[in-house]
Amino acid sequence: MASASAQPAALSAEQAKVVLAEVIQAFSAPENAVRMDEARDNACNDMGKMLQFVLPVATQIQQEVIKAYGFSCDGEGVLKFARLVKSYEAQDPEIASLSGKLKALFLPPMTLPPHGPAAGGSVAAS
């Protein structure tokens, strides 16, 4: 539909590192840190509420950075950026590390409660 707006997926691995670092830095900007804290407080560590409150704020923060690199300023742009980063993760440990840091900023650590479905078996820590 809007394919006249350029091909943003043309970032090299080095450029992807720069953009990832800028996105991570944007999360530590005071106004964005406040927005994320408020969203996390509203989510109360509930995964459904994390998707409802935290993910949209995290997406907006990413959009503000990646639009300068030719990605559309919507959810589709964030998805394209995420796919691009994912394509470089296996080849570049630094990109994999930066990507992990970014995800940790808005995804809670996955912990199973003791009474969860895996409580009876062994769980491999990753």
TrEMBL record:
InterPro entries: P_C10. Keywords: Cytoplasm. GO terms for cellular component: cytoplasm; nuclear speck. Its main location: cytoplasm. Pfam families: P_C10. GO terms for biological process: camera-type eye morphogenesis; cognition; corpus callosum morphogenesis; post-embryonic development; psychomotor behavior; regulation of skeletal muscle contraction; third ventricle development. Belongs to the UPF0456 family. This is Protein C10.
